[in-house]
Design a protein that fits this description.
The complex is a heterodimer of chains A (497) and B (639). By secondary structure, chain A is α/β, with parallel strands linked by helices. Chain A is built from 15 helices and 27 strands. Chain A folds into four domains: 173 residues, FAD/NAD(P)-binding domain (3-Layer(bba) Sandwich); 111 residues, 3-Layer(bba) Sandwich (FAD/NAD(P)-binding domain); 76 residues, 2-Layer Sandwich (Enolase-like, domain 1), CATH 3.30.390; 75 residues, BFD-like [2Fe-2S]-binding domain (Arc Repressor Mutant, subunit A), CATH 1.10.10. In chain A, the strands form eight sheets. Chain A has a five-stranded parallel sheet. A five-stranded parallel sheet of chain A has the order 9-16-10-11-12. A five-stranded antiparallel sheet of chain A has the order 21-22-25-24-23. In chain A, strand 21 and strand 22 form a beta hairpin. Chain A is globular. The termini of chain A are far apart. With 639 residues, chain B is of the alpha/beta class. Chain B folds into three domains: 219 residues, Rossmann fold, CATH 3.40.50; 191 residues, Dimethylsulfoxide Reductase, domain 2, CATH 3.40.228; 118 residues, Barwin-like endoglucanases. Chain B has a seven-stranded mixed sheet with strand order 2-1-15-14-13-3-4. A six-stranded mixed sheet of chain B has the order 20-22-21-26-19-23. The radius of gyration of chain B is 24 Å and the shape is globular. The two termini of chain B are 25 Å apart. The chains are: A alpha/beta (497), B alpha/beta (639). At the A-B interface, strand 21 and helix 10 of A face helix 5, helix 9, helix 10, helix 11 and helix 23 of B.
Chain lengths: 497, 639
């Protein structure tokens, strides 16, 4: 059997994942031969971890997706440092820079996206490239450039208060750069946050040293002067990081005549308008998801590997329920689903808790007991629980407030701590778990004549297991001694004191 | 029980007979079956509660007197995943390669799937110092009594521990806690492991496990900042179809933090049964010979055959693992007779309804026990054997220390030891009596020789040394050797002396919940009962404290299922249904129910468990399966 020839254009998180998944089903390449084309000279890397590189907690080697010998060990024909510049769907051939070609049975576009540069004077040079002192926050080179051109202490302006812009800003403050975020909307992360949550987040980030210019647009950048805004003010900046959104990299598809509309259009089998061409990740547009995040890309890669290897021919991609997490030290934010619904909504149940001074905000939107949207800031374990309810369609618990507050509730069994006041404990309080002895049994034993710790232990076996309740039995014994009315009736009580 | 029992045919009742009658009957039936269908038509099933001497003798009896390869034991259902992972990582499996008392010196302890407050109460003493200093971390889907003592309780969905371990390993690297020097000096294979863990950043892990990313980082921080730290696993994280990979992932975490093989820190597995450690070292396992030797290793075969005085070629090869053995009973290719020692399979095996049916399909079921367990009650012949206070023998504790248990009482008239039973059968099967000694000390002397040079080398241990009070942890390769309380301090047991990171990835439970079976079920122990409950359900105080099966469930989940606290409910999986009384607990996860596995009949939790097996350890997936919860039918209720 001749292996099916699969060519993957793009060695980013989507393409690399697809190759991994294909090799999981077909380890030796008997069914599927894989050719992978990567424009950058090094293995693909984990974009999620780039803010760690900026912050200095990880090196570049740490974020590479594969070991250097990965392609060899996994029978992958890897072409690094070349790009696809032409696609002939008729002869099923891709032309690469340098003149080589790749023939395919199935082509997968995983070309990702490119940063969108807002039309601000001075961001681009005469040739249309980013001007000196301006960098996008997108790839490993950008990270290198940020690290090289913004030594600790250099003020940095970040254009864009979305998820990636904020992660970049936090990474930079983490390594000691003063950062100002310029965001043209009145609150941060407006796609994922309501205005109240955006305000709480800004407050939390301000405490870490980030400054904000919200509702402001950058007007002009000039080296040495910094970034001028639309209100005439200037933000001091030795470096401008642009994180104002991305555009799907779909030029190859457009030029080949595939249907493209804000991304290469794909169906549930990740198929483009040409049956032999598929697309996954940021370059693709499926009706069931938003792009720009890794999770849809990985889910698409898993489905496509099922289909291309024949491991699961009925596998389909039906969209992704996206949860957005701000991944930055000390700040815990999760948002999902419909977030722009407020407590006055009549057809949905909305519960909200705000504690802006302590950086906490939580809102859940429910329909028929199911969580359809949530924003959880500053309450990590509540976020974890709510995310699982949302992901898996588990009905929310009736105690909504407890859900928003988080932290597991204690179990039903009351057990006595060492410091517990023996008098205050109900008789059913378990004192010795190992021997199932509650306070009531110890009291009964006392009344039946066990008037010392040793006697109580003999009578009930309390504290003879793990020994953890020894102190509790002791204080209970003291308390019982004190309860006894007169020394005459109980000579041991004064003898003991 | 004080007299052997025998039934004439399958439908006849068990009635008392003499030892000779019972032994003659069993030996002649076994000989017949062997004659007609070959040696593998007889199977042997042992237990982790047997002394080292009995475990050793049972393996020898199977291989020599019966000539069968079909021998395995219930430890396969217990520590086998941790054992396999330990061997892969360190080259040797000793549950705790350090004395248990060392744990009390640590300021951080991570317990994973270990509810020691109920399953091993005295052990709590060793973790309380860490708890008091804010360093006890417990990972368990339930808020167990152990978790209640913890400074930090991580509550993952059942079957997602491996993802959690990967997330924590990611946090070790991302937050700067990686021990680079230890990695370079004492380990190999980290880079490949990191490529996997790099894809499991804590926020992604949170979505799979339900454990907050911040809590994953906090747990790692506690371990990394501790002066001394231990990571200990138990059945909750091991009894999975991916159990070996899961334990490997925990060991990877320990290695990244530089814990194993360092004085005062390390990784250990909390052994379950009384002799869980020794029981897995001396040859009652399908693939193993005494001294933790491999049965397919020619040198090991030659050595052990030499001690036994038989031709190495006469020893059978590896046989079926425990569940596969049970699944094959009475099928034509599997054994037609089974001898069971120290195990109550009808209650404790996974997919228990099916296992009971396989036992029913046997031509001969023989059980040795000291109580009439549910399995004994289903047998054709039952032998009453001595219990712990009535016999001598050694046990190897969870820390690899060999303990001598000396006889304290005489057995009642009519009761014999397992060693006497094995000799009685061996003689009738044509073996010389002296090949199957009946005095534990003499058997131990032989075990010493058989284990000499093996991984679990007992050759330097003697009853005299133990009687004199020496604390001997194996390996003890010579009579002058002081034992090895702390292994791995200089080197790990692989030829290059390095510990090996294992590249493992999360796959999830074999049977995830779906629309038909929307909940996870997990099983475990309660404080009052032990294993199948065959012994503890006979103690009135214990039975009064926990008289029946129960199912712990979140009040909201109970309400949606239409069941109420205190009511009987049916918990149903693809394999069967178990009845249990509802206990509503607000600390339960909404998606999970818990059942104890100690109860018989319709209350057997193992009626629903999943026998999906780990590819390496052949451990069944006891700890997670998909179920639904509903009110129980009135007529189905237990009397």
């Amino acid at each position: 059997m001749t292996p099916r020839r699969v060519a993957i254009i793009g060695y980013g998180m989507a393409g690399a994942r697809l190759a991994d998944q294909i090799r999981r089903h077909d380890p030796t390449g008997r069914q599927v031969s894989v050719t992978m084309v990567g424009a950058e000279p090094h293995p693909g890397y984990n974009r999620i971890l780039l803010s760690n590189v900026v912050a200095g907690s990880m090196g570049i080697e740490d974020v590479l997706l594969h070991q250097r010998d990965w392609a060899e060990r996994n029978a992958v024909d890897l072409r690094l440092g070349v790009s696809a510049i032409g696609l002939d769907t008729g002869s099923r051939q891709v032309r690469l820079t340098g003149g080589s070609t790749v023939d395919y049975d199935d082509l997968v576009l995983a070309t990702g996206s490119t940063p969108w540069i807002p039309p601000v004077q001075g961001l681009l040079d005469d040739r249309g490239s980013l001007a000196e002192g301006v960098v996008a926050f997108r790839d490993l080179n950008d990270c290198r450039q940020i690290l090289d051109s913004a030594p600790v202490g250099t003020p940095v302006a970040v254009i864009g208060g979305g998820l990636l812009g904020l992660e970049a800003a936090r990474g930079l403050t983490g390594r000691g750069n003063p950062v100002t975020v310029v965001h043209q909307v009145g609150h941060l992360m407006e796609r994922q946050l309501d205005p109240q949550a955006g305000a709480v987040l800004a407050r939390v980030l301000r405490d870490t040293g980030i400054e904000f210019r919200l509702g402001r647009t950058a007007a002009k950048y000039s080296v040495g002067k910094g970034l001028e805004l639309d209100d005439g003010s200037t933000v001091e900046a030795g470096l401008v990081v642009v994180s104002a959104g991305t555009r799907p990299a779909s030029e190859l598809a457009s030029a080949a005549g595939l249907d493209v509309e804000r991304g290469v259009l794909i169906d549930d089998e990740l198929r483009t308008s040409d049956p032999h061409v598929r697309a996954i990740g940021d370059c693709a547009r499926h009706p069931g998801t938003v792009s720009g995040l890794v999770q849809p890309a990985w889910e698409q890669a898993a489905v496509l590997a099922d289909l291309l290897t024949g491991a699961e021919p009925s596998s389909r991609y039906l969209g992704t329920q996206v949860v957005t997490r701000l991944k930055t030290r000390g700040i815990d934010l999760a948002t999902m689903g419909e977030v722009h619904v407020d407590t006055d909504c009549t057809d949905a149940e909305v519960v909200r808790l705000e504690d802006p001074a302590r950086g906490r905000y939580a809102k859940i939107v429910l329909r028929d007991d199911l969580v359809t949207g949530a924003i959880v800031l500053g309450s990590p374990d509540a976020a974890a629980t709510i995310t699982q309810l949302h992901d898996r369609g588990i009905p929310a618990p009736t105690d909504r407030m407890a859900l928003l507050l988080g932290r597991a509730l204690p179990s039903g069994v009351e057990s006595a701590g060492v410091e517990a006041d023996p008098a205050a404990l109900p008789a059913s309080t378990l004192i010795c778990r190992c021997n199932t002895v509650d306070k009531g049994r110890l009291v009964t034993a006392w009344r039946s004549g066990a008037r010392s710790v040793e006697d109580l232990v003999t009578a009930t076996r309390a504290s003879t297991g793990c020994g953890g309740c020894k102190a509790a039995v002791g204080s209970l014994c003291e308390w019982l001694t004190d309860q006894t009315p007169t020394p005459a009736e109980n000579p041991r009580s004064w003898a003991a004191t | 029980m004080t007299t052997p029992l025998l039934r004439e045919h399958r439908d006849a009742p068990l009635r008392p007979v003499s030892w000779d009658t019972a032994l003659d009957h069993v030996a002649s039936r076994l000989a017949e079956l062997r004659e007609q269908h070959g040696a593998d038509s007889v199977g042997v099933f042992g237990g982790g509660g047997l002394t080292n001497e009995k475990a050793y003798q049972l393996g020898k009896f199977a291989r020599v007197a019966l000539g069968t390869s079909q021998v395995d034991y219930n430890g396969r259902f217990c520590m086998s995943s941790a054992a396999a992972a330990g061997i892969k990582a360190f080259g040797m499996d000793r549950g705790m390669p350090f004395p248990v008392s060392d744990v009390a010196q640590a300021d951080a302890v991570l317990l994973i799937g270990a509810n020691v407050a109920e399953t091993m109460p005295p052990f709590m003493r060793h973790v309380l110092p860490a708890a008091r200093s804010g360093g006890l971390i417990v990972i368990d889907p339930r808020r167990t009594p152990t978790a209640e003592q913890a400074s930090l309780h991580l509550q993952p969905a059942p079957g997602t521990d491996l993802a959690l371990a990967l997330g924590m390993l990611h946090a070790v690297v991302a937050d700067g806690h990686l021990d680079h020097r230890y990695l370079a000096d004492r380990t190999s294979g980290f880079d490949q492991v990191w490529r996997i863990a790099a894809a499991w950043w804590p926020e992604r892990v949170e979505r799979v496990t339900g454990v907050a990313a911040a809590d994953q980082r906090a747990a790692v921080r506690l371990l990394a900042r501790a002066r001394n730290a231990y990571v200990l696993t138990a059945r909750g994280t091991e009894q999975h179809a991916s159990g070996v990979a899961t334990v490997s992932a925990w060991i990877n975490l320990c290695l990244a933090l530089g814990l194993p093989g360092r004085p005062g820190s390390g990784y250990g597995c909390l052994t379950g049964q009384g002799n869980g450690q020794g029981g897995r070292e001396h040859g009652q396992k399908a693939d193993q010979l005494p001294g933790y030797r491999k049965i397919d290793d020619p040198a090991a075969r030659a050595h052990v055959a030499g001690v036994w005085g038989v031709d190495p070629d006469s020893l059978p090869g590896p046989g079926r693992s425990a569940y596969e053995l049970l699944d094959a009973l009475g099928t034509g290719t599997g054994p037609r007779a089974l001898l069971v020692f120290g195990s109550n399979l009808v209650v404790s095996a996974p997919r228990a309804g099916h296992v009971a049916a396989r036992l029913d399909a046997l031509e001969l079921l023989v059980v040795a026990d000291f109580v009439l367990s549910e399995t004994a009650a289903a047998a054709d012949v039952v032998f009453p054997v001595t219990q712990w206070a009535e016999e001598d023998g050694t046990m190897t504790s969870l820390e690899g220390r060999v303990l001598l248990r000396q006889r304290a009482l005489s057995a009642p008239h009519g009761v014999r030891s397992d060693l006497e039973l094995l000799q009685g059968l061996a003689i009738r099967l044509g073996q010389p009596a002296q090949r199957f000694q009946t005095e534990a000390e003499e058997v131990f002397e032989e075990l010493r020789r058989a284990s000499a040079g093996g991984i679990a080398d007992y050759s330097g241990i003697s009853y005299d040394r133990l009687r004199a009070g020496e604390a001997l942890h194996w390996p003890v390769p010579g009579v002058d050797h002081p034992g090895t309380p702390r292994a791995f301090l200089d080197r790990f047991a692989h030829p290059d002396g390095l510990a090996r990171f294992q590249p493992v990835d999360h796959t999830g439970p074999a049977e995830p919940p779906d629309a038909e079976f929307p909940l996870y079920a997990t099983t475990g122990r309660v404080l009052q009962h032990y294993q199948s409950g065959a012994q503890t359900r006979r103690v009135p105080e214990l039975l009064a404290a926990q008289p029946e099966a129960f199912v712990e469930v979140h009040p909201d989940t109970a309400r949606r299922a239409g069941v109420h606290d205190g009511q009987w409910a049916a918990v149903t999986s693809r394999r069967g249904q178990v009845l249990a009384r509802v206990r509503c607990l607000p600390s339960m996860r909404l998606d999970t129910v818990f059942l104890p596995f100690h109860f018989p009949g319709a209350e057997r939790a193992n009626l629903i468990t999943n026998p999906a097996l780990d590819p390496t350890s052949r451990m069944p997936e006891f700890k997670v399966c998909a179920v639904r919860l509903a009110p129980a039918d009135a007529e189905a209720l237990p009397a």
